[in-house]
Amino acid sequence: MKRKFNIDSDISKAETLPSSFYKDLKIFEELKTKIFLKSWQWIGDTELVPKKNYVYPLTVLNKYLSEPVIISRTDDNDIICLTNVCTHRGNIMVLEPGVMKKLVCTYHGRRFDNEGNFEYMPEFKDAKNFPRPCDNLHNFPLRKWGELLFIGFNPVFDFNKVINKMSERVGFLPLEKFRFDQSLSKDFKIDSHWALYCDNYLEGFHIPFVHKGLNEILDYQNYKTEVYEYCNLQIGYGEDDSNIFDLPKDHIDYGKNIAAYYYWIFPNMMFNFYPWGLSINIVQPISNDLTKVSFRSYVFDKSKLNQGAGSDLQKVEEEDAERAIFLIQSMLQDAGVDVNTGKVDLGVLQGKPRSEVSKMQLFMDILKSLEGDNKVAVEERAFVQELEKTEKFSEEEARNYIRRMLREASIYESKPGHYNRV
Q1: Which of 115, 120, 119, 117 shows the shortest CA–CA distance to 49?
Q2: Residue 360: band (very low, low, confident or very high) from pLDDT cuts 50, 70, 90
């Protein structure tokens, strides 16, 4: 990638990525090799290959990477991942799942065992330097966590480290007993860049505004984020001790009202654990402004469904897919223009142009100074006069700003005609 995007590791200084990251078609294509081919992807669970010598063909990130692979359960009961492309002329090997002790290409008859090792090729008995290791089907790295399967094409990090990090919090759950529930699973297509969906997931600030129902269940003031290497965790605390995890005594969060663990794994996977089980979100790029989001649910305690933070998931998913993402995408399509100055301003991509942020900061600073250490209620007329003195506000603008900040819950009317910061 010719252009570098730098994010300050200090969150108090970090800024949103520039709009070019989300809008440039060349960058969208380069992300295939720079990010996706170097990471891991969830592909399903062990039920794809329920018995020995069973093979299952699938295409990973169809319409983006579009990588055809075969999941194979060998004679030794090992589950492996092979390329589904014949090493002779690139024909697709397996078209349908089923029991196959041998993999035979339907184009020229080249044959492999179900571990991908070359066995036979018609009319090649006189070929020199044949066969060679490159005539075997390529074997991709595969990791198993509980019954879940993950593959990497050319991964730059060890997925076991991610599994170990998640297991610190959710390892007490009986992952081997989780069962796929088709009725709780569906796909959405959203008119947005794939990374915008991830951006939205990774910040919890929108929860009180976009997810009203979820916000009533979670204790937003204690919402917590922990950042690790190649993954992070958002912890949702319940308002009370109902519909929370029954944590073992040696658990790091024992005694806390944990309603949900939300894990994001770089670059496009979410694993949301609830007392009833797991909801997986896979974000699949299709084009620069079209994304498919697949929701797959695994249940181990049906009695806890439709309760707490894990209830009404479809509503939360639709709110994320339709409302929050639409708002962000709309901003990007305006090319980051500050309506106050008419100039391109990357601060717009954070929700407000810098000129507006600066004005809001001035507003709050003046209110803070008028409150003093004792946080006295500030009379509106005195407040308006101080704002006017800055020459950044007219009297009308100052009064409108007060009304606006009331609506946004940045300030409150502590008594009639008097205000304080929230």
Answers
A1: 115
A2: confident
Contact 282, 296 (CB under 8 A): yes
**Are 173 and 146 spatial neighbours (Cβ–Cβ below 8 Å)?**
no
Question: CA dist 170 to 61, 239, 252, 272, Å?
Answer: 27, 21, 10, 10
Contact 233, 303 (CB under 8 A): no
Strands 142-145 and 418-421, bridge-based pairing: unpaired
Q: Quick one: DSSP state of residue 322?
A: I
Tokens of 282: 């896979």
- Say if CB 143 and CB 163 are below 8 A apart: yes
Round to whole Å and give the CA distance between 31 and 27: 6
Q: Which residues pair with 189 in a beta bridge?
A: 292
The phi and psi torsions of 219 (rounded to 5 degrees) equal -90, 90
CB atoms near residue 258 (< 10 Å): 22
Measured CA to CA, the distance from residue 318 to residue 321 in angstroms comes to 5
Is 317's pLDDT higher than 80? no
What pTM did the predictor assign?
0.73
Q: Are 264 and 273 in contact (CB under 8 A)?
A: no
Residue owning tokens 């004679």: 75
**Strand order in 111-113's β-sheet?**
102-104, 111-113, 118-120
In contact, 235 and 261? CB cutoff 8 Å: yes
Give me the DSSP letters along 292-312.
EEEEEEEES-GGGTTSGGGSS
Q: 353-372: buried (b, 16+ CB within 10 Å) or exposed (e) per residue? A: bbbbeebbeebeebbeebbe
Closest CA to 252 of 135, 168, 151, 375: 168
Q: Which amino acid is at 102?
A: K
From CA 65, how far away is CA 104, in angstroms rounded?
25
Distance (Å, whole) CA 309 – CA 258: 10
> What does the DSSP assignment read for 135-186?
GSPPEEPEEEETTEEEEESS-SS-HHHHHHHHHHHHTTS-GGG-EEEEEEEE
Please give the mean pLDDT across all residues of the chain.
Answer: 85
Number of alpha carbons in the 13 Å side-chain half-sphere of residue 155: 19
Q: Are the C-beta atoms of residues 58 and 92 closer than 8 Å to each other?
A: no
pLDDT, tens digit, 9 for 90 and up, residues 35-88 = 999 999 999 999 999 999 999 999 999 999 999 999 999 999 999 999 999 999
